[in-house]
Amino acid sequence: MSKNPSFPFPEEKTQKIFSKFQLVVENKSQGNELVDSLRSLLLSYQFSKKKPRLNKEQKTFLINIIKNPNSTSIMKSLSSHILRTTSGYSKGNVLQITLKKSNGEDLESLICFLDLWVDGKRLEKKIPQILSWISRDQLLTEQVIPFLSPILSDHPFIFQKKTRDAFEKQFIACLTRASLNSAVITGSFWRQASPIPVTEFDGSKCLDFFTVLNCSQSYTNDQMTNVYTFSLLYSWLKTLYLDPIEKQKQKEKEKEEEEEGFGNNEEFQKEKGNKKIIKLNERFCEDIIKYCLRTLDQAVTKISTEQSPKEAEVIDSNIQEIVEMESIRILTLICQIDPGQIQKVTSITKKIYERRKTQKHSLHPFVEIMNFVIMNIEQIKYDFQPMIESIFGEKLFDLYYNSLECFDLLEFVLINRELLLENYPSIFSKHFLAFFRILAWNPDEFSLEFLELLPTLIHPENYLEIFHTLLDLPILSLCLELSLYKDLEKNVDLASFSEILNYILRKESSSSSGKGKNNINFWDQNEYLSVLQDFLESNKHSPRVISCCKIVPILLQIYFDVLISYASIKEIQELSIIMFNRYFQLFSKQSFLNQVQKLILEKTMSFFAGNPSLIFDLNEQFISTLQSLSPGIDYIGKIDFLISITWIIGEYANKKIESRLSNEIISTFFGAIEVIAFEYLTIVEKSKKSKKGSTNYSMGLNESQFHKQKQSQSQTQSQSQSQTKFQIENENKINFENQFLMKKFGNKFETQSLLKQISTEQGKNQTRLLITLILALTKIASRNHSFIQRTLVIISKIMQHSEKYNFLILEKAEEAIKLLNNPGIASLLFDMEKSARSQKNSYNISDEKSSLPFLLLENDSQNESFHNFFF
Amino acid sequence: MVVGFLIHSLDETQITYFSYFFSAHLNDEHSIKRQNLIISQVYQNYDKKLQSFNILQTNIENNYSKQLMEKSVGVGVFRVPESSLFQKPKVVVWKKVLNLCYTLILSPDENRMAAQHFLKFFIQLLNEHFKNNTVSSKPKLLLTKPEEVLILIEKTIPNGNLVYANSFVVKNLRTEIEATILNKKKNLKDLEIKKAIKK
C-alpha cells in the first residue's frame, strides 16, 4: 500500500477529472484545455484505485481526435493510450461501431484501426488495403511494420499463405534495398545540403547493402523500416513457420486434435489437415541468410573513435554483440524450418565460435551458438565438445553474479535438457556445481528454474555429491559472498579456513575428478569441523543465505522423489548411510535444521518401507548412535531421531525379512533399546523418590500438571543432589527459554502461555518415545522369545508406577503384556515373512555404471513407485 | 515482443509512475493487479540483493568486486509462470537507477540482451529529454509531462518491438522525439491561434 498521500488518487479527485473531461467532450474543446484534460485523464488511469469507465460518447470523442488530421500528435498519443488502457473494459464494442462507420478508408483511420487492436477478424479484412498502401508508401511501411508484432502475437491466423507472401515480398525490399545515403537534411533556405553516404562502424563507406549495423547521419524512412523489419524477423519466422511445425509434430506425437490460436481459421485448418509443412519462400530465405551473414561480418568491425565518441562507442560495441546474437537466433530458426541450410550455417557458426572463444565476451552469443548446435546435432559433424567444456567449465563458473547471462543459459538448458543429456551428459555430471553456484547466488530469482532442473542433474555418479551440495547450499552461498568480498590470500581470518573454502568453491565435481563419490563430505574431517563451525557462527547470514535455507527442503523433496523412483538398492543403501551421518551435520539455522531433519527422517522411513534389508546395512550406525545417546535428550532434535531409529529397529530387525541379521546383531539392538528404556524409567522412579508426595516429573501428564512440575523442579533444584543430567538440562532449558521469551514478549501472561505450549510438546514427544520403545521391545521379543522376560520386566516397572504415566502409555504397556504372555499370537503378529510385506522394492537399473542421469536410465520399475507413501 | 513497460519506485511505496501494456489482453480489469504483482516481485528480489550487499560491503577490499556487485544489485531478471493473471509465461527484465526502476515484461522468446540494451538507451534519452541527469532521483518530474514520456516510449519501443539501435539510430530517435514534441507544441500554438481567429 502506498504511503505517499498523493498515491493513489482520492476518489473525489478522479471524479472531478472525469466531470471536467465530460465538459470538454460536450463543448468539443480544443487546444490546451483538451490537452490538460487528456493529461489528467491519463494520470487518473495511472493512479486511481477504482478506474471509471468511459461512456460511448467519450470514446467516440477520443477516436475522432485520433482520426482528425488537425489534431496534434500529443492529442492523438494521449487519446489512443487512454483508449488502449481502457480497451479491456470496453471489449471493443464501441470501437468497432465507430470504426465501422468510418469505413477505414483514410490513412488516419487505418492507423487508428491498427493502434486500437481491433479484433482479428475485422483486421483480416483490412489486410489487402494495408498491403496495397505499404507497397507504394515508405512512410506508411515504416509505421505499419511495428504493428505487425502485436498482431502476430494476438491474431497469427490473419497471415495466411497469400498474405504471408505479400508481406515477405515487402520485407525483402525493406531488408536489402534501403538507401545508401542519409536523409537529406534541409539546410538554410538558400542551400540544400548534399546527401551523406551511409558508413560502416569503422567509418568506411558502406560495403554492401544497408543493415542495422550501418551508420546513417540521418535515417531515411526506408532505413528505419530496415531496422524495424530486422527486429520483427524472429517473431515472424517463429510464429508463422516454426510454431505450426512444432505444433504439428506435437500433434502427431500426442494425437491431439485441438490446437490453440490457429483453430478457427478455415485455410489454416485445411493446411493442417493436409499435413503440409509450411515452406519458407526461397527468395525470402536467401535474403534473410544474406542479411544475417552481412551483420555477422559487421559485428567484428572495429568501431572508429572519430565517428563514435566514447559514449556512442559503448552503445555500438554492445549492439554489435546483440545483433550477432539475434542473427544466430534467426539462422537457427531458418535451419529448423529449412534443414537444407544447416551445412551452410554450421560453417558460419563454427567461424563465430573460433573468433569469439579467445575474447572475453558475455555468454549470450555462446548460448545462441549452443542452441544452433543442439537443434541440429544430428546433421552437424563438427565437434562442439570443447565449446561445451569451455562454457560450463570456465565461463559460467565466474559469471554466477550476472543474473541476465545465467538466466539465458538456464533457460537454454531447461528447454533443451533432453537433447543435452543425450549428447553432452558431462554438462550435468561433471559441471553441475556451476549450476549450484548460480542457485546459491540467486536463490530468489532462479528457484523456479532449479525446481525443474534438479532432476536432470542427478545421476548415478554424482547423486551423493549432489545430496551434500544441497545440504550445504547455504554454506556455498556464504562462501561465494566471502570469496568476492575479501581478498583471501591477504586475509588472516580466513587463512585457516581456506582449505574448506577451496573445496566448497571447487569447479569440478569430486566424483568426476576421480576422488570417489564417497570422499566428499568435509563435515567428516574433524580437523576442519571446529573451523567450519566458528566460521558459520561468526558470519551474519545475509538474506541470500536465508533464501537458500528456504529452498533446500523443497529441492531435497524433489531429490528424494527422483531417487525413490529410479535408484537401485545399492544406491539407496549408500544414500541412507550418508543421510544418517548428515542428520546432525547441517548448517546451524534452526528452521533449516528442523525442516531438513524432518525430511531426512521421513525419507529414511520411506527407504526402509521399500527396502527393509537396509536394517543390516545400517546396523552399525544404529547401534553406535543408540549407545552414544544419553537419556538427557533435547526434545527439539534428537527425540524424533531416536523414535524413528527405535521404530525402524522394532519393525525390521527380523531375520525373516533380512537373513543377514545374526542373533548377535538382534541381541545388540534389543540391548541398546532396553538400556534407553531403563534409563527413562529410572528417571521417573528417582524423581518420585526425591520428591515424595509431590506430583513431580513424569511423562505425558496433562498440560497444567506438567507445567507446574517444571516450575517446582526449578525451585528445588539446589536441594536435590540426585537429579539426573536430564533433569538439569531440562531446567536449564526452561530457565533459558523463560528469560528469552520474557525478553522477547515482555508480557508475563504471553510468556507463561508459550512455556506451557513448549512443555506440552515435550510431554507429547516423551509419550511417543516411550510407546515406541515398548513397541520395539515387544516386537523383537515376539520374534525371539528369549527376550520376553526382559521386556516384561521393563513393562512391569511402568505398571508399578501407573499413576505417573499417560493413559496411552499404560494402554500400550497392557497390550504388550497380554501379547507377550501369549507368544504364539505375538509371533503371528510381528514375525512376518518377507513375502507378506511390500513387494515394491524392485530396484533395477540395468547399467549401474552408466553416466546417464536417473531419468534416462532404463528401469523396469520406472512406472512403479518405490513405495506407496507418495504416489 | 515486449508486452509491458513499467516505470516505478523501488521502495516500500512501490508507486507506478508509468505503465504501458502493448498487448490488448493485458489491458483488462486485472491490469493493475498484474503490474503490482510484477513490481512487488522486482522489489523483493532487489531488496534481498541489496540487504545481502549491505551486510558484507564493509568487508569489501577488492574494488573490482565491489563494482561488479553494485552493478548486479541494480539489475535482474526472472520468469513469470503461467497463471490466471498471465495466460502465457513471461520474462521480466528490470534495471534500477537511483529512485526509479525500469521494468520490461517480455514474451519468453524475446532477445533479453536487446531488452537490456533498450533500458540503457531509454534511460539515457529520458535524462536528456528532461534536461536533468537525475530525473530518476526526482520521479515526480515525469508526472508533469506524462505525454512526453508516452512519446518517448512510442518512439523507442514502437508497438512493443525492441529496436536494434546503434548510436546513430539512438541519435536519430533523439532528434525525432524532440521534433515531435516541439511540433506538438507548435501545432498546439497554431490551434490556439486558429481558435482565437474563429472567435
TrEMBL record, chain A:
Domain AP-5 complex subunit zeta-1 ARM repeats: 324-436
InterPro entries: AP5Z1 (IPR028222), AP5Z1_ARM (IPR055450), TPR_AP5Z1_C (IPR056856), TPR_AP5Z1_N (IPR056857)
Chain ranges of the AP-5 complex subunit zeta-1 C-terminal TPR domain: 449-690, 749-856
Domain spans labelled AP-5 complex subunit zeta-1 N-terminal TPR: 11-255
Organism: Anaeramoeba flamelloides
Record's protein name: Ap-5 complex subunit zeta-1
Any matching Pfam family: TPR_AP5Z1
Signal peptide extent: none
TrEMBL record, chain B:
SUPFAM superfamilies linked to this entry: SNARE-like
Protein name, per record: Ap-5 complex subunit sigma-1
Organism whose genome encodes this protein: Anaeramoeba flamelloides
Organism domain of life: Eukaryota
Pfam families the record matches: AP-5_subunit_s1 (PF15001)
